[in-house]
Write a structure and sequence with these properties.
Layout (H helix, E strand, L loop, with lengths): L22 E5 L6 H14 L4 E5 L5 H11 L7 H25 L3 E5 L2 H12 L4 H14 L6 E6 L2 H9 L12 H17 L3 E5 L4 H16 L4
Parallel strand pairs: 1-3, 1-4, 2-3, 4-5
The protein binds ligand Z5A.
């Protein structure tokens, strides 16, 4: 992918109508602290009186959550194309029933993972960055995703540190069972994406959760002046 790519048919932040809510996604490899950072961001939005919807992918709507259970179940045995299409089926329902209505109501949407995860995990992790597969995913995004995030926070942490954080928790799901090499490819995918798309903000995810949240808030504030 070339650097500084435009995402032509999607709205950019400056073009977003003022009454529309902001759409913010969080990305990263396993265990980087997205859930923790999102909790802290939402607490801050709440104190600022900003109405938000907190959601996640895969999942976020009742039907998409059913697909999430299938996608994460270690017993699920499907090929890569089937996995990709299930992720987009879940995303389509989530967009139509949760994300787009919330944004239209003027609510902010805070989403744990979105399209960049598909490019990083399915495009780079599963398919080793194969241009045909990445192209297929980009086509699905163009065709089925009417709105991309205004800002994406990529929590950047060395793969092994994230895995160590995640391993302290429950048993591994179907993705978490992948080997370190897989997550290194996913990480490289996020690096490519961050270089290509200006909406993706790299956040150093090392240090305490308070430090990470302060970095996120600083970027948010600089970009969208939330504390005005
Ligand atoms: N997936 C995909 O393949 N394609 C797609 O299109 C999409 C998803 C949308 C489920 O995602 C899987 O779906 C995911 C990719 C795939 N698989 N993987 N890997 P998920 O987001 O539900 O799962 P996850 O990435 O594994 O998230 P996670 O493990 O829940 O991690 P997290 O939310 O980034 O981290 P956390 O829960 O906030 O923190 C992890 C632990 O570290 C926890 O014990 C915290 O207390 C601790 N923590 C958090 N922050 C810190 C700091 N700063 N220091 C120390 N410890 C910390």
């Amino acid at each position: 992918m070339s650097a500084s790519r435009a995402e032509p048919h999607h709205q950019h932040m400056s073009e977003t109508a003022p009454q529309q809510g902001r759409f913010i996604s969080f990305e990263g490899t396993e265990g980087v602290g997205k859930t923790t950072a999102i909790e802290q961001l939402c607490a801050r939005l709440y104190t600022q009186g900003i109405d938000y919807v907190r959601t996640r992918e895969p999942g976020g709507s009742p039907f998409a959550e059913q697909l999430r259970a299938i996608l994460l179940d270690p017993a699920t045995d499907i090929d890569d194309d089937t996995e990709l299409l299930l992720l987009f089926a879940a995303r389509s329902d989530h967009l139509q029933r949760v994300i787009m209505p919330a944004l239209a109501r003027g609510q902010w949407v805070i989403c744990d993972r979105f399209t960049d995860s598909t490019l990083a995990y399915q495009g780079y992790g599963r398919a080793h960055g194969d241009a045909l597969v990445v192209g297929k995913i980009e086509t699905l995004i163009e065709q089925f995703v009417p709105r991309l995030p205004d800002i994406t926070f990529w929590l950047d942490l060395p793969v092994l540190e994230g895995m160590a954080r995640a391993n302290k928790r429950s048993s591994a799901d179907r993705f978490e069972q992948q080997a370190e090499a897989f997550f290194r490819r996913v990480y490289a995918g996020f690096e490519h994406l961050a270089a290509a798309y200006p909406r993706i903000q790299r956040i150093d995810a090392a240090g305490s959760s308070t430090e990470v949240s302060a970095r996120i808030w600083q970027v948010m504030d600089a970009i969208i002046r939330v504390s005005d």
